[in-house]
Amino acid sequence: MAKTVTTRYDVAEHLRTPEEMAAYLEACLAEADGDAAFIAKALGDIARAKGMSQVARDAGLSRESLYKALSGERSPDFDTILKVIGALGLQLHAEAGHG
Is the dihedral angle over the CA atoms 59, 56, 30, 37 positive or is it negative? Predict the structure, then answer.
């Protein structure tokens, strides 16, 4: 019987276009259930796909602080989230809730 080989799945390797990145963030927002650290981790995945150093420069943050903020281990400040979203070329949208 052949041995099964597994590799770690990294979503950042599959986020190639701005549309894929936006769709991923949209899906994570829908699944987050109010968990800000979960959203931060999703933004970290997108930032890794784009290149963390470039995103840090564009957001006006150090690479190290960006890694910490988007690790998913804590909830970063909202201003950091807004800077990262802008640096990623994404936009936040709001719509009326149903119910």
Answer: negative
Residue 62 structural domain: 15-87
For residue 71, report the phi and psi dihedrals to the nearest 5 degrees.
-75, -25
> How many structural domains is the chain composed of?
1
Asked if residue 8 belongs to a domain, the reply is no
Residue 7 burial (C-beta neighbours within 10 Å; 0-12, 13-18, 19+): exposed
Contact predicate 23/49, CB 8 Å: no
The arithmetic mean of pLDDT across residues 51-59, rounded, is 96
pTM for the structure as a whole: 0.87
